[in-house]
What we know:
This protein has 211 residues and is mainly β. The protein has 3 helices and 12 strands, in the order αββββββααββββββ. Strand 3 and strand 4 form a beta hairpin. The longest helix is centred in the N-terminal third of the chain and has 12 residues.
Amino acid sequence: MKWLPLVLIAGLLLAVVPASAQPLYDEFWAQLDPEGVVVADSSGATGDWPDWEFYPATGWWNVWLRDGEPIAANKWVRISVRIRRIVPGLPSWLILYLNSSTPFWDATCNPFPPLPPYTPTFDDEMFYIRRDSLGVGEWYPPDGPHEYIEVVWDDWHDVLIDFEYVIYGYNPKWISIDIMGWNVAIRGFIEHECVSPVEPVTWGKLKALYR
C-alpha cells in the first residue's frame, strides 16, 4: 500500500501536463523518381497538410506538419526514416532537411504553412522558412551548415536513419520535412515536442532545455 500515494501523485502530474508539452507524432512517405520528382500517388503524410509541395526557387520538396502555437521555447524533434533505392543499378541520392516556419511567417496568422505561392523567390523562402540540414545521401557537401550523415546504398537493403535534433529559442507554428534527390523511396515518422522552461515536460526531453 505504501506505493499507492506515489502512483496517485504520478498520475496527477501527468494529468496536469498541458497539451503543448505532449509529444506530437506524424508519419510521412515519398518517392523521388530518377528525375528528382516526387511521385504524387506514392507520397504523403498524416499531418494537416499531407501533400508534398515543390519550391521552384530552390528545388526542394516539403511536406508540412502543424506544430501548435508559436512561443519562445525550445523544440525537440526525433526523426526516424527508412530509405530504399527504387531502381537497382541506377544512382540514388537524398538530402533530408528539417524545416520550420519563421516568426515572420507565423506573425501573418495565416491558417496554412508558407506554401510556394507565398514564397516565389529565394529571398522569400529564406525569410519565411528556416531549414536545418540533416543531410542524408551518397554525397553531401562537408561544409554544410550542420552535421551531415553519409550513406552508400546497395541494391538490396534499406537504410534506417534515426536521430534527434533541437531547435533552440523558438517553437514554430509549422514544421516540415524537406527532401531533394533521385531514385529513392522514404518512409518514416517525426515526433516533436515543445519544451518550455515554465511547463512540465515528458521524461527524456529535459536535455532540450539546455544547450
